[in-house]
Amino acid sequence: MTSVIPMPAARLTGRGLLAGGAAAVAATLLAGCGDSPADTASDQPRRGGRLRAVFAGGGAQETLDPHLANLFNEASRAKAMFDKLADYGPDVSIRPRLASGWEPDAGLTRWRITLREATFHDGRPVRAADVLYSYARITDPKRAFRARASLELIDLRASRAVDDRTVELALRRPFAEFPNVLAAFGAYVVPEGTDAFDRPVGSGPFAFDAFQPGRSLLLKRYADHWDGAPHLDELEYLVANEESARINALLGGQADYAHDVTPTTARTYAGDARVRITRMANSTMQALAMKVDRPPFDNRDLREAMFLLTDRQQLVDTVLSGAGQVGNDLFGKGYEHYADDIAQRVPDLDRARFLVERAGARGLRIPLDTAPVASGFVETASVFAEQARQVGLTVEARSGNKDTYWKDILTGGVLACYRSGAMPIETHVSQRLLSTSTTNATRWRRPDFDALYARAVSSPDEQTRRQAYGDMQRVLHAEGGFLVWGFADFLVATSPRVGGVSAAAPANTLDWARFDKVWLG
Question: Mean pLDDT, to the nearest integer, of 343-347?
């Protein structure tokens, strides 16, 4: 159980501030912010101040264990206090972090990784032993850490510390895309022997100060961070689960950064001098998942009809309120290895009707599984049903249990609303589209497709890999089960006094919700 460290803080709600009265709490929240800031952030970084960032939270059970990070606020806090060996850049290519570089052997089964000269917050150097310990902790079969599935490729018994700043990781099979594993969500390096995180010690740009689970976390600048000290003196995370409460905290001057606001809110405050909206494009794939192993979508003609009846722009305009762009039935638009040479699909209702007739599906009733588990899912089902009706299909929304939705749609049903955050295209394929994938929601199982993937990840030649990824995407575009209709922007709101928030960072990449490069005006 995470212990509670007393500190002056409050939980924000839609009705305002609780716990001690609005005036008293507002004064507390504003304390420690340094000199009175300018109304607008300067173009150049400026040192000092406390930035207050408000996120949705996880309640009293929140933890600072970076290997358990799952929610957005937990992920942001983990990257503030800890480092991974690598992370995702704006195009989800791999960027070195604690690792200054890596080199495979000729067989792609042993990777030698060189560590930077970095230190933990207590002054100890980051060593190869810390990496091996962290990965062993993550892959412990008795634990349920998110990065475990990615790191299980590593044979830790055959891996070794060459010296304090060099670690050699042995793999269970050749894998050219191993840097993707180093950047896996939650694969943070912690000091050897660490298993308690009530007062965490990491190597990130901010060091722990005080924590109240479900309420607030206060961090302080770590001057000796290997990537340069943060501009801010302090970083405070606050919690407000309601989006209205987050934007009201910003408008009321009780927060400087409001995470995850809706397109409606963004439009409402577009002309308000108190608010700046940052749009992070290509953050979330929006899709429908058709199960290709069972009727009716084991019929390729009907799958193609579904692709062609879809008015993607209408879905973007209505479901996403215009805060996004159309998809082309492929994951990872704008990411490394994305097949942008494949022509964009556009509605063709005549062709769709013909294919429906040829499939013998005219008048067919198709249940569409949906649930209020993600913004826009219920609206997607309604809009898509209207589009399908134009070609003689009756799509009927079927609302599921929001607590078990993601598990239920893996094996049940025939059509479901689906979404995904940023990850490398290789990871998307390996987790969702191979015959052995454990989260294969479309039940796509093709030996020839598996062989293309194996060719990509086992080849040391970049051109060979690029060609294989292109071939995989062409097969999926023509025959696959993911109807990817759009990519949603991720929206955050900030005070004008905040500078340095990156707009070129899809959610879950390195520069998303990253505060060591942010400053106050």
Answer: 98
Identity at 351, one-letter amino acid code: R
- Is pLDDT above 90 for 304? yes
User: Beta 50-55 vs 234-239: how paired, if at all?
Assistant: parallel
Distance CA(173)–CA(454), nearest Å, equals 11
Beta-carbon contacts of 228 under 8 Å, excluding residues fewer than 6 positions away, are: 205, 516
| Integer CA distances (angstroms), 66 to 83, 216, 340, 465, in order | 10, 16, 35, 32
**Tokens standing for 118?**
């970095």
**Position 58 confidence tier, pLDDT thresholds 50, 70, 90:** confident
Distances (CA, A) of 397 to 21, 135, 366: 45, 43, 9
**Token pair for 155:** 């044979």
Q: What is the pLDDT of residue 42?
A: 84
Nearest to 494 by CA among 516, 468, 518: 518
Tokens matching residue 330: 């492929």
Question: Residue by residue, what is the 3-state secondary structure of 214-279?
Answer: CCEEEEEECCCCCCCCCCCCEEEEEECCCHHHHHHHHHCCCCCEECCCCHHHHHHCCCCCCCEEEE
Rounded Cα gap, residues 81 and 224, in angstroms: 13
Are 227 and 235 in contact by the 8 Å Cβ rule? The answer is no
Please say whether the dihedral angle defined by the alpha carbons of residues 383, 265, 418 and 58, taken in this order, is positive or negative.
Answer: negative
Write down the pTM of the prediction. Answer: 0.88
Q: What is the C-alpha separation between 469 and 471, in angstroms, rounded?
A: 5
Q: Are 118 and 98 in contact (CB under 8 A)?
A: yes
Mean of the pLDDT values across residues 472-485? 98
Q: ω into residue 296 within 30 of 0, thus cis?
A: yes
Tokens of 11: 């939980």
Q: Which residues pair with 493 in a beta bridge?
A: 258, 277
pLDDT band of residue 382 (cuts 50, 70, 90) is: very high
Phi then psi dihedrals of residue 75, to 5 deg: -65, -40
93-114 CB burial, b ≥16 within 10 A, e <16: ebbbbbbeebebeeebbbbebb
Identify the three-state secondary structure at position 96. strand
Euclidean distance between CA atoms 371 and 502, whole angstroms = 32
